[in-house]
Amino acid sequence: MQYMSTRGNVSGVGFIDAFLMGLATDGGLLVPQQIPTVSAETLKAWSKLSYQELTLAILDLYTNNEIPADDLKKLVADSYSTFRHPEVTPVTKLKDKLYLLELFHGPTFAFKDIALQFMGQLYTYVARTRNLKINILGATSGDTGASSIEGVRGKEGINICILHPHGKVSKVQELQMTTVTEDNVLNLSVHGNFDDCQRIIKDLFADLDFKSKNNLCAINSINIVRIIAQTVYYFYAYFRVQEQEAGGAEQVSFSVPSGNFGDIFAGYLAKRMGLPVDRLIVATNANNILERFVDTGVYKPDNFRMTHSPSMDIQVASNFERYLYYVLGEDTAAIETLMNAFRSEGNLSVNEETLAKVRSEFGAYGVDNDECLDTIKRFESANGYILDPHSACGVAAAEQRGTGGVIVSLATAHPAKFDEAVQLTGIKQTFPAQIEALFNKPQSFKIVAGETSIIASELVEFFGSRG
């Protein structure tokens, strides 16, 4: 297995080098040169595996044997040793044919932990075995930052800087990032929104001289390893539903709260690998660029809106390029033309034939603030289950765009991370002890302007001071 860029000017990259590269050097995103496929017999064998064993089986298809088996087994074991549930990502039934995949049992109570705890362990391993100094740079709409920091805080040979939009993440998300005391962590609170933070990240990674001089590595979902790690829970959820659903289910649909398109792209990759997926439903909020694309074939940012689901307050989905690459028949020249046009003109569009293919694979539904809160109230009243606002968007989209078959909606965060929204429903919740303790800790972050040159100066100073 080797990796290449969606824009065609980078190919033949190994697993660890792809991991370290993050964004391809031609500005594209790395993808497998050939997606591995899984037979029905293999699926049957995998259905009996634990989450950790399943992770190893899937990673084996992508790692080129670059990591010795015993080392990889330890990396996976260490990655999930801090999770609070023995199944890592358990599945619970909400109502007839609607299941919830709980992805919030990791150390920061968000789905990002599942990939980022592994990536943190892998960065530590690579830094040690290759004797490298690694400087991780990432942007977050809330959850990626805390999960990334948790994965590498205090680790030898690794520094991390996370950009988050000032005043546009929940209080718990902010505290999880900014109460970390290890000196290899820098939090920059950026004036602007997440799209501004993400744009700065891409600009800095595209500056190959700056990237090389500062040993930059990516933690965001532009990193293909993060996507691969997220495919695991789609397989795991499918197997658990087969056990719970009377008579099994020939296919399962998934509803995915979506902002940056990474999580749902992992589901698409799992489907391409051979998982029996019927539909993938893109659940958005009022920042619904992805819903509008599925409806019209036009991908164009609109006015930014703050919502009750802030981790989805994103207008430009960085992983969307990966899907375009596949839906356009892996035509790298077409991708380069489209993405250059998007950069210069601020929008792109596909023809009717392509749009029909998109609609055959994806549904989409935008959930406004009122419907989000109503969904939280309905399910708490019906069975005492409190959804966080992002998970509520996923459930609402599942109800609106489901095909009548079995559907799994992804629960991407614990509701305690977004108590501001939950309080609006009149529901009172009890915080886990780990979250409650955050409110008594001092914070450390720096507020900066959303300009690439200013962020670059901050990075040079921070990374340079760390040797």
UniProtKB/TrEMBL annotation:
Per UniProt, which keywords does this protein have? Answer: Lyase, Pyridoxal phosphate
- Any one Pfam family match given in the protein's UniProt record, by short name: Thr_synth_N
Which cofactors must be present for this protein to function? Answer: pyridoxal 5'-phosphate
What GO terms in the biological process aspect are recorded for it? threonine biosynthetic process
Q: Supply the EC number(s).
A: 4.2.3.1
Q: Which residues form a coiled coil?
A: none
Q: Which residues carry this modification: N6-(pyridoxal phosphate)lysine?
A: K112
Q: Name one GO molecular function term.
A: threonine synthase activity
**What are the Threonine synthase N-terminal domain coordinates in residue numbering?**
2-80
| Top-level lineage group | Bacteria
What Gene3D superfamilies does the annotation carry? 3.40.50.1100, Threonine synthase, N-terminal domain
Q: What class of enzyme is it?
A: lyase
Give residue ranges for domain Tryptophan synthase beta chain-like PALP: 93-400
The entry sums up its family as follows: Belongs to the threonine synthase family.
Instruction: Name it.
Output: Threonine synthase
